[in-house]
Amino acid sequence: MKIVLLSFFLGLTLWADAHIFVYHRFGDSRYPSTNTTISELKKEFDYFKTNGYKVVSLNRLVKALKDGKTIPDKWVVLTIDDNFRSFYDNAFELFKKYHYPFSLFVYIEATQKRYPDYLNWKQLKKIAKYGSLEFHSYAHPHMTHMSNEDLKKDFQQGLEIFEKKLNIKPKYFTYPYGEYNNRVKKIAKSFGFDAIVNQNMGAVGTKSDLFDLDRCALVGKTNLKYLLKLKHLNATWIKPTSFPKNSILTTLHVKVDENAKKGGLYISGNGWREIDFKNKEINLKLNKKLTNGRNRVIISIGDKISTKLLIKDTKWN
Ligand SMILES: [Zn+2]
Are residues 181 and 257 in the same domain? Predict the structure, then answer.
């Protein structure tokens, strides 16, 4: 009986979509909240290896999504935001040793102006032989705080230097601080990237939006096993789709691809609560004041989750 139950339980929990992870600094104890220690990194790499996870390139995942293929449940994609020296000094060898592909998202100004702690062009070129280099803005700004014009300038300036210095046209983009809204996303998309990855906890399934791929952070204290269990919830967000007027969230209207009766709702500053679905839909009246400039609304059904990031579009609308 125990075995039957156990295999039933494992059967459920081992099924998951692909997962994209993001790292920042490695073996750099000065910044614990954005750092991954080398022993932790090794533990994670060993966990992937011994538990049958296949670390694939972002290219391979995006191609599978574009081709409409089923996404294998044990694919893992590794990304690194910011071109910190600590990657090159402390972690690069380990990535090479495990033959794990990776995508490193470059903050151009830091390398261009030789900020301490950041990689130089020569080191980036060396890295490009083993992983892909991608775009992470010119000046690493809070993009929702910028006018359309300034935002476009940042992309133009950054991409021009990227292509000139590295002789590569980047295919993917990540938002500085993971901050975006519909306006910023539209401008980012207009620069012709093949995909955009966000920084919202979740997984990637066949129906994921190529320009809004969820990505989990593996920095500071994390629970890798928990993150690997997450699945993508196919959800259509009718409301909210943007930061609400007067900061008050009044309606939650979401359609889901699941026949569940119960689920969870998380709103930043309010924690989790149980919610009821009716005919694959939730339509709730709320009166929640959003107290932060950056808020997450998350819907969950079992291990499946869908996140809506609501960032105040400061000054510009
Ligand atoms: Zn960054």
Answer: no
- Domain range for 116 is 2-230
CA of 177 relative to ligand 1 center, distance in Å: 6
Q: 292 C-alpha to center of ligand 1: Å?
A: 20
**Domain shared by 90 and 222, yes or no:** yes
| C-alpha of residue 263 to centroid of ligand 1, in Å | 33
pLDDT (tens digit, 9 = 90+) per residue, 141-164?
A: 999 999 999 999 999 999 999 999
CA angle 47, 50, 54 (to 5 degrees): 80
State pTM to two decimals. Answer: 0.93
Domain check: are 184 and 247 in the same one?
no
Please state the three-class secondary structure of 73-121 as a single string: CCEEEEEEECCEHHHHHHHHHHHHHCCCCCEEEECHHHHHCCCCCECCH
Whether 114 and 251 map to the same domain: the answer is no
Q: Which of the listed residues 182, 199, 230 is the one where a domain comes to its end?
A: 230
Q: Evaluate whether 248 touches 285 at the Cβ level (below 8 Å).
A: no
User: Same structural domain for residues 200 and 56?
Assistant: yes
Residues 188 and 214 in one domain: yes
Q: Is residue 316 part of a domain?
A: no
Q: How far is the CA of 168 from the centre of ligand 1 (A)?
A: 20
Q: In 3-state terms, what secondary structure has residue 41?
A: helix
User: What residues does the ion ligand 1 have nearby, CB within 5 Å?
Assistant: 81-82, 176
Distance (Å) from CA 274 to ligand 1 centroid: 34
- How many A from CA of 14 to the centre of ligand 1? 31
State the DSSP H helix or E strand holding residue 151, giving kind and residue range, or none if neither.
Answer: helix 148-166
Write the pLDDT tens digit of every residue in 4-38: 444 444 444 445 699 999 999 999 999 999 999 99
- Cα(137) to ligand 1 centroid in Å equals 9
- Report how far ligand 1's centroid is from the alpha carbon of 119 (Å): 14
173 and 304 share one domain: no
